[in-house]
Each structure stands twice: as structure tokens, then as C-alpha cells.
Amino acid sequence: MAELLNLCADDVDICVNVGDTKPFQFERRVNGAVIDITGFTYVLSVDPDSAPESSSTQLFQLTGSVVDGPNGIVEFAMNASQSDQNVDVFFYDIQETDGAADITIASRGKYEFEARITGTP
Question: Which of 12, 84, 111, 118 gives 20 to 30 Å between its CA and that of 95?
């Protein structure tokens, strides 16, 4: 009998400070277990709307770098322009394309930009 896998995206909120450009990592899991993502590609899209009708309102997209495929680690980094946002809560999803070119949403949730005190841009 085949095992039923949970293919729904994990809801994970991301919180960054305005002006941050340090990369952050995402660990890919299915049903709680880390999966090998060697050969996979990732795109993280940020939008003010949780269910946009088009990409025209999108704030930015980040291309993920698989930094440890066997342990399911993908890394994303914003550049200075992408991190220069107003303090606000937006929404994101991460699209995953596996080695067979199958596409799924690996994660989604809130993408929050918080104010910073030190080094205010």
C-alpha cells in the first residue's frame, strides 16, 4: 500500500528587518522528514496580497540556492533594493521544481518587514 504524503504547503512566517541582506535558509520537509533536494530549483515570491490574481502586484522574487541538497537546505538572499521596504506584513510562497520538472508550492505564509533601530536606512 502506498503511503499518503502531505503535499500541502507548510505555513511558515518569515520576519526580516528593513535593510537586511543576510541570506536566510529554509529546510525542506515532507510529513516532518527532511527530503533530498539535490537538483531542485526554488523561487520565493513576495506580494501584498495573499491570493494575487496576477504577478503585477509582486514586490520581488528571490531565486533560491540549494546549499545542502541531501539535508534539504535552500538559501535565499535579498539585495539592498529588495530589502528596502516599508514596515509592513506581506505574503510569500516558495515554488519548488524537482528533478522531474514537477512543480509544487513548498511553503507559504506572511513575510514581515520590521523596523530597525541600529543603522536605520
Answer: 84
